[in-house]
């Protein structure tokens, strides 16, 4: 079963500025998408709030974490 994590955020987003560096420091396998640069992708996955992390399993959105509930630990739990 193929798993992929996609992080949706934006440069102007306050919580994104806090969370993204933590995720980068943890060296997690996450694809980062700026919603302003890729609005079609954000729309495809139904992104209404940022930051949002979507777990893709076999090409389908399976789970998501939104907002300040995103931590390194919650993201690691998605991968397990």
State the total count of DSSP E strands. 4
Structural class: alpha+beta
Low-confidence stretches: none
Strand content: 25-35%
Helix content: 25-40%
Question: How far is the N terminus from the C terminus?
Answer: 12 Å
- Global mean pLDDT: 94
Radius of gyration: 12 Å
* Count, helices: 3
Largest sheet descriptor = 4 strands, mixed
- Morphology call: globular
Element-by-element helix/strand order: EHEHEEH
Short description:
The chain is an alpha+beta fold and 80 residues long. The protein has helices at 14-25, 39-44, 72-79; strands at 3-9, 30-34, 52-57, 60-66.
Structure commentary:
This protein has 80 residues and is α+β, with helices and mostly antiparallel strands. It contains three helices and four strands, in the order E-H-E-H-E-E-H. It has helices at 14-25, 39-44, 72-79, and strands spanning 3-9, 30-34, 52-57, 60-66. The protein has a four-stranded mixed sheet. A hairpin with a 2-residue loop joins strand 3 and strand 4 (60-66). The protein is globular. The model has no long low-confidence stretch (mean pLDDT 94).
What's the helix and strand layout?
Blueprint: E1 3-9, H1 14-25, E2 30-34, H2 39-44, E3 52-57, E4 60-66, H3 72-79
Parallel strand pairs: 1-2
Antiparallel strand pairs: 1-3, 3-4
